[in-house]
Design brief:
Elements (H helix, E strand, L loop, with lengths): L6 E8 L8 E9 L2 E7 L9 E11 L1 E6 L9 H10 L2 H17 L2 E6 L6 H10 L7 E4 L20 H15 L4 E4 L18 H13 L4 E5 L2 H10 L3 E4 L12 H8 L5 E5 L2 H4 L10 H10 L5 H4 L1 H8 L4 E4 L12 H11 L4 H7 L2 H6 L17 E5 L9 E6 L2 E5 L2 E2 L5
Parallel strand pairs: 1-4, 5-6, 6-7, 8-9, 9-10, 10-11, 11-12
Antiparallel strand pairs: 1-2, 2-3, 4-13, 13-14, 14-15, 15-16
Helix pairs in contact: 4-5, 5-6, 7-11, 12-13
């Protein structure tokens, strides 16, 4: 007997977000804002209220664990940074509002924002929660904790010393941050910094983690080299962002030592497959010749699968890996997260089901929402995405998006009104 529901969605192919092989000819029942059932379409009652999507695939709402809602996706880092630094609050808020809509149009129903300034993203989060603005569920880190001239210091939280770190994190907690981001290494968007040098000492990172956890806040660590990653993992950070295992000269380090470091740790790796990686996908469309040139220039090998051979070793060793997009950085629009899912299949040499899991259930678990979203399972929130096509090799165009059981995208267009 099928349960009583408000509506059924019937599709040809269903990925439940766990990494299991897809199921076919399935229907998902929704009541209020929750998933209440998943059954074979043949088992539906003749009088059931069913919306059928021929030649379609259903997945959980995508969870992008690493975005920058206030960034403008310009053609290079300097333009993006300049626009960010020179824009007033109203302009940045407008950019964030549009990017939030773009998330929904791309099937992304949950994001973790790691680059706020002046708590503007927290304001977007609160307006979305109050149903006065269209957008995904947002977890906000506020402005990243960094050194005075360190990576993303232009977001506003440059500090030094253990006391300074404690003070900044306490301010973030008081302001309502959902997570703390600490820049344990430099990064490419900040020319004053060095991606292959640690910005904080191990003791300072440990203080940041203790302080954040004392406030009940998880810690995301931007880390692009061996020293910064090792210090972050030993300090007990919750996620390692990017996790580019590089020596101080930028050369790849031995991935076996990274596997040893992460085995048994509490840290989850968040790989960011941004436009710079998406452009390396064979047959990728939508990129200019200059963007392709830029992608090849930063690629260590010129081949996406070879570039991420180290990450493949993490997967084979059972190390949790999540796929994020870094949306907002150069040529990485928010609507194209399915391109990051496809890039993950190539970069990590995995199946589509596995790549979806890294972008849904595993991402939800990594950011602390595994009991709410990320899977198609009775009892979880009805964040669902219907895509064109029923291929087991690639996700098609987003057709419909449900956020907490409410249709917010239909036929690729926003369907939303303030309540």
């Amino acid at each position: 007997m099928t349960p009583e529901v408000d509506q059924w969605l019937a599709v040809d192919t269903l990925h439940d977000g766990t990494g299991a092989p897809p199921r076919h000819d399935r229907a998902v029942g929704i009541k209020d804002n929750l998933i209440v059932a998943e059954v074979a379409t043949d088992d539906l009652r003749p009088d059931a209220s069913v919306r059928t999507f021929p030649n379609s695939t259903l997945i959980p709402g995508l969870v992008d664990a690493h975005v920058h809602l206030l960034f403008s996706c310009d053609t290079d880092h300097e333009r993006t940074r300049t626009r960010f630094e020179t824009s007033d609050d109203a302009t940045l808020t407008a950019i964030g509002e549009q990017n939030a809509v773009e998330c929904l149009l791309g099937g992304v129903t949950t994001v973790r924002d790691l680059g706020d300034t002046r708590n503007l993203v927290m304001g977007l989060r609160d307006r979305i929660n109050a149903h006065s603005l269209a957008g995904p569920r947002i977890l906000s880190a506020g402005a990243p904790v960094t050194t005075p001239s360190g990576h993303l210091h232009w977001c506003g939280n440059g500090t030094s010393g253990e006391d300074g770190i404690v003070a900044v994190i306490s301010q973030l907690a008081d302001a309502g941050a959902d997570v703390v981001k600490i820049m344990t290494s430099g990064g490419n968007m900040t020319r004053e910094s060095d991606p292959f040098t640690a910005q904080f000492g191990d003791a300072e990172v440990a203080v940041a983690v203790r302080t954040s956890h004392g406030h009940g806040l998880p810690v995301a660590a931007h880390a692009q080299n061996v020293a910064s990653i090792r210090g972050a993992v030993l300090a007990g950070v919750d996620t390692i962002e990017h996790c580019l295992w590089r020596e101080s000269d930028g050369s790849p380090a031995d991935p076996r030592t990274l596997v040893d470091l992460l085995t048994g740790s509490r840290s989850t790796v968040v790989l960011t497959l941004a436009g710079i990686q998406r452009a390396l996908v064979p047959g990728a469309v939508g990129f200019t010749d200059q963007e392709r040139t830029d992608a090849l220039a930063i690629s260590p090998t010129g081949d996406l699968r070879t570039d991420f051979s180290w990450a493949q070793k993490l997967l084979r060793a059972g190390i949790p890996v999540v796929v994020g997009s870094d949306a907002g950085v150069r040529f990485t629009p928010f609507r194209n997260f399915t391109d990051s899912v496809h890039a993950a299949m190539i970069a990590l040499d995995c199946t589509l089901a596995e790549a979806i899991a890294m972008s849904t259930s595993l991402a939800a678990e990594a950011i602390g929402l595994g009991g709410q979203v990320g899977r198609i399972r009775p009892g979880l929130v009805a964040d669902l995405v219907v895509l064109d096509g029923a291929s087991t090799n690639r996700l098609g165009t987003v057709r419909e998006v449900l956020r907490s059981g409410t249709r917010v995208v239909s036929d690729g267009q926003l369907q939303w009104a303030a309540s």
